[in-house]
Amino acid sequence: MIRRIVIDDIRPRTPTGAYPAKAVVGEKVLVSAAIFKDGHDILAAQVRFGDQTAPMVPIGNDEWAATISPRSIGARPFVVEAWTDRHATWARKVRAKQDAGQDIEVEMAEGIAIFEAQNGADPVIQDALTALKQGVVGPALEVELAGSAGAHDLTSSLPVPLWVDRERALVGAWYELFPRSYGGLWGTAERVPAIAAMGFDVLYLPPIHPIGTTFRKGRGNTMGAGPSDPGSPWAIGSREGGHTAIDPGLGTFEDFAHLLDVLRQHGMEVALDYALQCSPDHPWVREHPEWFHHRPDGTIAYAENPPKKYQDIYPINFWPDDDGDRQALWHSCKEIVDFWVHKGVRIFRVDNPHTKPLAFWEWLIPAVQSEHPDVVLLAEAFTDPRMMSKLAEIGFSQSYTYFTWRTEQYGPEGLRAYLEELAGPKADYMRPAFWPNTPDILSGPLRNGPPAAFAERLVLAATMSPTWGMYSGYELYENEPAADTNEEYWHSEKYEIKHRDFDRPDALAPLITAINGIRRRHPALQRLRGIRFHHSDNPWIIAYSKVDDDGDDVMLMVVNLDPHHMQETTLWLDLEALGLSWDRPYTAYDELSGETYRWQGPNPYIRLEPWVRVAHVLHLPAARP
Amino acid sequence: MIRRIVIDDIRPRTPTGAYPAKAVVGEKVLVSAAIFKDGHDILAAQVRFGDQTAPMVPIGNDEWAATISPRSIGARPFVVEAWTDRHATWARKVRAKQDAGQDIEVEMAEGIAIFEAQNGADPVIQDALTALKQGVVGPALEVELAGSAGAHDLTSSLPVPLWVDRERALVGAWYELFPRSYGGLWGTAERVPAIAAMGFDVLYLPPIHPIGTTFRKGRGNTMGAGPSDPGSPWAIGSREGGHTAIDPGLGTFEDFAHLLDVLRQHGMEVALDYALQCSPDHPWVREHPEWFHHRPDGTIAYAENPPKKYQDIYPINFWPDDDGDRQALWHSCKEIVDFWVHKGVRIFRVDNPHTKPLAFWEWLIPAVQSEHPDVVLLAEAFTDPRMMSKLAEIGFSQSYTYFTWRTEQYGPEGLRAYLEELAGPKADYMRPAFWPNTPDILSGPLRNGPPAAFAERLVLAATMSPTWGMYSGYELYENEPAADTNEEYWHSEKYEIKHRDFDRPDALAPLITAINGIRRRHPALQRLRGIRFHHSDNPWIIAYSKVDDDGDDVMLMVVNLDPHHMQETTLWLDLEALGLSWDRPYTAYDELSGETYRWQGPNPYIRLEPWVRVAHVLHLPAARP
What is the rounded distance in angstroms from the CA atom of residue A576 to the CA atom of residue A208? Predict the structure, then answer.
């Protein structure tokens, strides 16, 4: 129902409006709304957010905006309030009449009534009132009556849900590795200092639980594993336990606690895999057969994508016929999260959430976060856009994206269109994580690609998205695909142990270290919405800028998308967006090379030889006078 | 809360979703929704609409669509239902396994279970089941199991509100006149045959109520009316009555009934003005002073837009401090509508609805339409876009638009951008009325404009929008503005009586008659959503096509926007949208001139000399093979 004033189209919001939009502590959140009333009165508006009150300003077309600053995590709804500014409306009328030489006697009396209703102890207001009573209107026209106290037509929106996460839900650099390739959890802890030195914030581990032996997959995803084959970590569960156990081959809970300690000492934290599926040997198969799909021949259904069969995995039936069974299953799934939270884990990378009911996540995520608002969940939903977006809307903190397959600049499948989509209204609730590779995905220019391809995709991922991640081996340019027909790696680490020489002198680690360092120094790179593309005459070279919430930090990235050839271009910078003017020179400091360029106007010439460098990552320190 | 299947983003809908979308009887309404579920099962969906059940088909990106056909007026909600198509999912699996030469024994048993659950008497299904039991899978793969009976995971949307109006709410040609210039209501009735002969559907009369004498405005909106000045019809109310009285100078209720009879005989109906404001002489001022704004000096506030004063009009205070006063006022406002509905009026043109609270309209319109669903209300809200859109959302049947000021083809203020906006999602709830002129607005090329300007704007209004209207005098090319600083007419009929010679041989009546006739013959012109623009090399010439709901009727309009000069162009028709092919010639029949053109390919050459003709209105009868 509409009250005195219309307050519509409040942002941030999710598409249906039924779930909270998202923000992080320290972010400056732009709140906007369409606010209007019948007639021609002047309105005023503000946002109430906890103990903050932010005055809104009109920004055109009946839209108003204000900025709020979340300072603590959890459910933090805000309210938009609007009212008729009787004083400003009155002052406008008085001025118009004065300008036309008309009598304002009645208006003087109206003014006195308005000031008396204000009922304030502010001496400026009192003086204006006194002057009015003496027939002097000037001070009363000039004074500002702020705030909604004594407001006329005061109208409040319903509380608008906003979920505030800690910063890591928006900003972070992730590193993924298989602990078994490093000698288990203890060996992984020994690798942490080197990973931390590259500037990573999160260490993501594929499932660390016991792996089934029944139908265990051998090297290269083959049937019939040999005795030395470790199996896929996603075939969870054996006699040694299920989702709340650690594979004895990886270590003990003490080793796990040690790993968390080492991470903490290096300013990092762990992300565990939350993969809700079972090997045929998982304890649940025996204890809760009712939680699986049964076939007419009495067997439990394994995973299939006909004609492909995954006999080592039993999907869980999240919607058994019996409601009691469903509730018991869902609660057991939540108990897994609770268990690891109790062990100190606060980030979960959720495997294939799009193959589980949305209603399950809609229940689980608020249930977990109401008890532990610092829990962050990354959705691994490489699926259709609607599903990916819906998972974000109902509560996932972060989402894997299509970045891996966006390799060109232009077109509906290009980087520009994709980033503009992500940084638009979607940014209210969906936070992208850009991964140039994963253990499942070796794609695009990386396939048999040169080192420059790895450098290029690294710079794009880490400067376009506040969260980015890579799977280990990337820094060693691992580029061999398993086949032309899929995106798997040759000798996929999912089915075997890998040994790597991270001390290779030509490795990518220095560039990773540099990029992650720049990301930490420049708040512009810690935000998504501030991205803007600039025209480049050569489509192989992409140029985009970012600014931070305050508009103080301005970064300009220029990247060669062609890892094989030198490309050169003339840019057409949107100087205004960069806070620059046509008639004054400005400096661009390349944070990667340490070089400083002195430019003037919108058309710098750029030349990028991929074997020398793939990108400029430029700070525009002279951007604001 | 999400149920088993997600059903999102259902259209048609209003921006907030809190009010009914709109359709008319006979319209084919495209219902679409995003429908998806976890996993990879094949889904099915349908729309339930009264006794209709329309199967939905997937149209890409998880969107589904169906068409429903409203057959009666009133609140007619629909429901979207989706379910898992177990049979299709099963058949897909069986085929994939067969193709790979895999065993399907268990799948046969699954198939039997699915067919037995279907529980249908359909002999085809029974035969397929029998074959399955005999180990023959073929018939079971081919059969179609339609409908949601026995559906798995059946999920229904909430009822989606849809308001169905009669056709006149979407389609109509309106003619506006001041009855006093025709000798009152009786004289107006005598003019009806000529108006009906031009093809008009609705006769719209400015307020026909007694006009106040206090501060009555004289000719040209001047102070101090002389005894012969009739006053503005919008200064409603005198000793002779208020909003439920007829100005005795115009006639009696018998005369009004006679006018309605004559209109009915000519297939027309009346639209009355609903202007909620009072002259100082209105009975309400005496009987209900609490319904007006009072100033500190004890006077009632007249209308002001400082420094302009409208002393002949008292605005109503729709939100008096006392809630009881407000309820009494609002009900009295509704009683005015009820009164005229009782007298046979079903269309109201609402004066300045944007100066009355939206909450008032939100209450009034459903209150009226729940009793009289055939009532149509046109909002005269020449105001900001948000307000205009909101009035449509909360229930107005039609809206005046910015058409009058959209005179060029390109740019954000151009006809193309505006029509694309109106025909997009807005068309779900806002129905435009295009008026080239009104008694208040003489604008753009019509100001001191040549006859070709009047012809051009007529063709645009009547072929772009399903509803269009004109104010009398247009057919006589009345083109003299009152001043350079406003859009009023010289000798505005709002303040004086006009006598016109409609028998002028050069009048626009023949073109009006032709255009209205074409509109009636061609359903394409009775719809808004089917509009599409085609590139023209010369921006002075605009080209757009329309198709009807079924895609059977295809019209192509080519209009010269320059009333002063010959313009020529090459068109770039979107042949596919027109149902044409590159390699086959087609005929274009000009409904205005009777000429037939034989064209092939997308590039006809067009030459329009405004003194000969301003437009082609082409039927493409050979559009479909």
Answer: 51
